Amino acid sequence: MSDLDPENCITFQGVPGAYGHLSCSTVFPEMEAIACDTFSEALKAVREERAKLAMIPIENSLGGRVADIHHLLPESGLYIIGEHFQPVQHQLLGVPGSTLSDIKAVHSHEQALSQCRGLTRDLGIEPIIHADTAGSAKMIAELSDKSQASIASSLAGEIYGLEVLRDRVEDRIGNTTRFVIMSRQRKDPDPRAGNCMTSFVFQVRSQPAALYKALGGFATNGINVTKLESYITDASFAAAQFYIDIEGHPEEAHVARAIEELQFFSAKLKILGVYPLNSYRTEYSA
């Protein structure tokens, strides 16, 4: 990364060809996508000004929330400035010259294999768990064994010179991962420019019905809460922190009133970002 312009770099977790890489290329095709071993390293590179942005998965429509992300984001020192919804379209990839009848085993991430059970059953091939999808594609290319295949993205196939033996092998169409785009600078959009999302974390005070009262302001002010999740923050199991996404901008009067009411019943609150509402949300619900 040292020879690259940090202001033109975006990080992701995984190896080249991962769905995080595909998301970077889709949203920021002009930027250099940098692979990192862990989510922490991807965020750290931005914080230390070795990259401008990070593309971080936060939840999947089938698998739920991505482990550890809700702990990492509040402590990252970064802000959410955008969101991206990446369709997960799995491909069965093999080395050049291989055919479906050659395949005896398929390698991929555990979740990808679970999302493609129909394929392994129909072809009678052995599923073998790998650390990640793109990493399995890289391994298959290095093995150059016609009996081994990978389930990964089309980008992974292009990068590692593999052939698509079967397209769209997932059992259910519509599998989508939501990514958030992280930056050192908070970049609140103009509330008059269009619909916005606000993400934040908070802890309620230790008293009966505190959460019910804290969230009441969103109901009375007509604010749509699109995501609310809790997770434990210490070994006592007494302090639960909540991650929440809402539709609206803090500068809008009804949103400001709801947040003010939330703060009254909260021990602490931290806004993680205000960013434009992605068109995927309205297109999918239409």
UniProtKB/TrEMBL annotation:
| Gene3D superfamilies, A to Z | 3.30.70.260, Periplasmic binding protein-like II
Q: Which residues are in the ACT domain?
A: 199-276
- Record's keyword annotation contains Transferase: yes
Which EC class is the enzyme in? lyase
Entry's Pfam families?
PDT
Q: Which reaction does it catalyse?
A: prephenate + H(+) = 3-phenylpyruvate + CO2 + H2O
Q: Which UniProt keywords are listed?
A: Amino-acid biosynthesis, Aromatic amino acid biosynthesis, Kinase, Lyase, Phenylalanine biosynthesis, Transferase
| Database matches in CDD domains | ACT_CM-PDT (cd04905), PBP2_Ct-PDT_like (cd13631)
Q: In which pathway does it act?
A: Amino-acid biosynthesis; L-phenylalanine biosynthesis; phenylpyruvate from prephenate: step 1/1
Is rRNA-binding there in the keyword field? no
Q: What is its EC number?
A: 4.2.1.51
Stored SUPFAM superfamilies = ACT-like, Periplasmic binding protein-like II
The Prephenate dehydratase domain is annotated at: 9-184
> What GO molecular functions are on record for this protein?
kinase activity; prephenate dehydratase activity
Q: Please report the name of this protein according to its UniProt entry.
A: prephenate dehydratase
